[in-house]
Each structure stands twice: as structure tokens, then as C-alpha cells.
Design brief:
four-stranded antiparallel β-sheet; alpha+beta; Tachylectin-2, Chain A; five-stranded antiparallel β-sheet; 3 helices
Length: 434
């Protein structure tokens, strides 16, 4: 009995041991599976942490970019606001200048038509085109310090005949001597070419600085032109019964040509206190010989020089003159003789107008100022080519050309300016514009 019991206990023990061993194997298998899962989880966690790190970095980068973009956007908005304000101002200005734009179109259209007419040789058509738009072009010159004619008009000479004023000038786009007229010194119309034909000895295309006066019922025009034989600049003369011409030059040789002094240019006639005619002009100068201004008596008909020798009036002697004197104009006023002249480089803003006082029509002359009478200033640059005349009321005027300050030097235009002239202690003073 006891053997049977012992055998049963042993069997139960073996069975229990087998069961435990089975559970242990299952536990070990589960543990192994858990370890595998844990390794996979750890790997996934590491990947997630890496991804999270990259995402955080990208987030930080995006935040920086967003901040920068926001700043740039703010700047763009500010710039846009400024641009809008500027655009608004421009629109207001454009609206206020609507009339000027229309006048500009009219002016440019007329000038283009005139150039087309010149190209086909129709000078009368060109004159008509320019005259038709002159007022529109002139209105665009408002505020230019007194310019009264909107086209190129160098070396002007203005005279009065009755109630009409005539202006003559160096050739420009076409013709030999430009001619314009006015009844009020404000509005000018184009008459055309005062000198349609040159003398046979003269070379066409090079005519400068006309000077005109009325003498014994005849109008006499002096001008500078190139001598076709010598190639030097010389002075010639033409006459007409009317200030509008046509002036006729029947000369067979120059009136004056100082070949040993480089040639003669810039003639200007005047009458002395007794009514005797004289002519002043410039000698060009040569190497070692500066330019100078001369005076000589004319013959009784004004078409030649009298027998007496020409007298030199002035040479460049002051620093502002830049070694050049030219473009003379003699004035007899209140019993005194005044010689107005240009000096320095005509192609620059340094060009200016000076004055000398003279004891008589052939000098001697001296300079009362150590500076220019009229130089560059607001609204104009490089004034020169003075011409003196009196209006119907006896008011004395000085006509001259000048560049606009923003367009100095060839090929820019030299416009016609007019200023009143007064005297202080017998020295002329150019009055400012009103």
C-alpha cells in the first residue's frame, strides 16, 4: 500500500515538473518575443526621435524664414505706400500740366513739319510751319529767365522801325540770316531768310552775327561769312529798301577781312553824335595775337569803309574774359559812348557780356568794371551777342542770346532774351525780369 502511494506521489511530481518545465519554456518564448518587440519599438522610437529632431529644425528654420518674410512684407508695404504717394503726386502734376502737354505736342508737330519742309527745299513752307506753332512753343519756355523766342537765335540784333521790332540772327536750321518780328517784344513771328543770296565770293552755309541799321532811308545789313578763296571769316554788306528785305549783296570782295589777324567777324553798325556811320567788329586773332574789337568810319552810303584806318578799341585784359572778346555793339546814350561785348568761350556757361566806356566812336575805351556786366544766372547760361535798342517809350533794352542751364553748349539752342537797361553813376545795369 505504501509502495502504491509512493509510486503515485512520484508520478504526480513528475507530471508537475513537466508542467512547470512547459510553462518555463513558454515564458522564455514569450520573453524572447517581447525582447524582439522591444527592440523593434526602441528602433521605431529612435527613428521617431530623429524625425522629431529634423521636424523641429525645419520648424525653427521656417520660423526664421517667416520672420524675415514678415519683415520684407512690411518693407514692401512701406515701399508700396511711398510709390502710391509718388504716383498720386505724379498724377496730380500730370493733370495740372495737361495744357502744357497739348502745347508740347503742337510745338513738336510744327517743328517736325518745318524740318520736313526744309528737307525738300520748301523754306517758305518751313517758315509757315514754325510761325504757326511759335506761340505754343514759346509758352513752354515760361520761367526761363526772360526768353522770348523758343528757337535757336544766336548773335541777335534787334532794331525798331516805327512800332515794329525786327530781330536778325545767325543762320540756324536753314537760310543765311534769320528774321523775326514783333509788335510787343513778347510775341514773335517768323519772316524767313533776310538774305536769300550771298555774294559770289562767299561760301554758303556759314553766315554769322548780322548787324542792321537804317541809314538815309536804306536798310543796311552787315554779316560775317567765309571767303571762298582764303577760307577766312570776312565781313560783307547787303542793302534793302525794307527791314524785311530781301537784302541784296552785290559786293565783289569782302568789306573787311584782316587776314593777318585771322579774319574779321561780328560786325555791328552805329551812328555817332553827328549822324556819321561807323562799324565795330572783331578780329579773330592768330597765334600770339589775341582777338580784339575794332572801329572804323563807313562811307557816305554805308557800304564801304572810309579812308581812315581802323582803330582797336579793346583786347581781353581781365580774367573773366578768358582771353576772348567778340560780338561788339556800340551805344551812344546821354552823350556817352558805351561798347558792349561778349567774352570767354561761347560754347560754355562761362560766356558773358562786358562793357567799356569810350571817349568817341573810335575810342579810346576803358573798362569801368572788373567783372562781367551780365553772366550766367538762374534761368539762363552763357549770355552773349548783345544788341542795344530803345522801345517806343524811350526805354533802353539789351537783346542777347543764352542757353538754358540744363542744355549748355553746341548743338543746344541759344534762345533770344530781352532785358531792360538802366544806368547807375553812368555805368549800365541790366535789370532783372519782372
Amino acid at each position: 500500500m505504501s509502495a502504491i502511494v509512493g509510486t503515485g506521489v512520484l508520478g504526480f511530481g513528475i507530471i508537475a515538473d513537466l508542467h512547470v518545465r512547459s510553462e518555463l519554456r513558454q515564458a522564455r518564448s514569450t520573453l524572447q518575443i517581447t525582447r524582439v518587440h522591444l527592440a523593434l519599438t526602441v528602433g521605431k522610437l529612435s527613428s521617431v526621435e530623429s524625425t522629431l529632431g529634423k521636424t523641429t529644425s525645419q520648424r525653427d528654420t521656417l520660423q526664421v524664414e517667416l520672420t524675415t518674410t514678415s519683415q520684407e512684407l512690411a518693407m514692401e508695404k512701406a515701399s508700396l505706400s511711398t510709390t502710391q504717394a509718388s504716383l498720386s503726386d505724379a498724377n496730380k502734376s500730370l493733370a495740372s500740366q495737361g495744357v502744357d502737354i497739348a502745347k508740347l505736342n503742337t510745338c513738336l508737330g510744327g517743328v517736325e513739319r518745318a524740318l520736313n519742309q526744309i528737307a525738300v527745299g520748301n523754306n517758305s513752307g518751313a517758315v509757315a510751319s514754325i510761325s504757326g506753332v511759335s506761340s505754343s512753343c514759346q509758352s513752354l519756355q515760361a520761367g526761363t529767365g526772360g526768353a522770348v523766342y523758343p528757337f535757336d537765335f544766336p548773335d541777335p540784333d534787334v532794331i525798331r522801325v516805327g512800332s515794329v521790332y525786327y530781330g536778325y540772327a545767325t543762320n540756324s536750321a536753314a537760310g543765311n540770316v534769320q528774321l523775326i518780328q514783333s509788335s510787343d517784344l513778347i510775341h514773335w513771328t517768323v519772316d524767313g531768310d533776310a538774305l536769300s543770296h550771298l555774294a559770289s565770293w562767299a561760301h554758303s552755309g556759314y553766315t554769322w552775327a548780322p548787324g542792321v541799321f537804317e541809314f538815309n532811308g536804306t536798310f543796311v545789313l552787315y554779316y560775317a561769312v567765309v571767303d571762298g578763296t582764303t577760307g577766312k571769316e570776312c565781313i560783307s554788306v547787303a542793302i534793302a529798301a525794307d527791314p524785311q528785305g530781301p537784302f541784296v549783296d552785290n559786293s565783289t570782295a569782302p568789306l573787311e577781312c584782316q587776314l593777318d589777324l585771322g579774319g574779321s567777324i561780328d560786325p555791328s553798325p552805329f551812328l555817332d553824335a553827328s549822324g556819321t556811320p561807323y562799324l565795330v567788329w572783331k578780329s579773330q586773332g592768330t597765334t600770339g595775337q589775341p582777338s580784339a574789337i575794332w572801329s572804323a568810319q563807313l562811307t557816305a552810303d554805308g557800304t564801304g569803309l572810309a579812308g581812315s584806318a581802323a582803330q582797336m578799341l579793346v583786347r581781353p585784359s581781365q580774367s573773366w574774359e578768358g582771353g576772348v572778346v567778340e560780338g561788339p555793339s556800340m551805344l551812344l546814350w546821354s552823350g556817352r559812348y558805351y561798347l558792349f561785348y561778349s567774352a570767354n568761350n561761347w560754347d560754355s556757361a562761362n560766356y558773358a557780356i562786358g562793357v567799356a566806356t569810350c571817349q568817341g566812336p573810335i575810342g579810346p575805351c576803358s573798362k569801368p568794371l572788373t567783372h562781367a556786366l551780365l553772366g550766367s544766372q538762374e534761368g539762363m547760361a552763357g549770355p552773349g551777342g548783345p544788341s542795344l535798342f530803345a522801345d517806343q517809350d524811350g526805354q533802353l533794352w539789351i537783346a542777347f542770346h543764352a542757353y538754358l542751364p540744363t542744355a549748355v553748349g553746341y548743338p543746344n539752342s541759344r534762345l533770344l532774351f530781352l532785358r531792360r537797361l538802366a544806368f547807375a553813376d553812368s555805368v549800365p545795369v541790366v535789370q532783372p525780369t519782372n
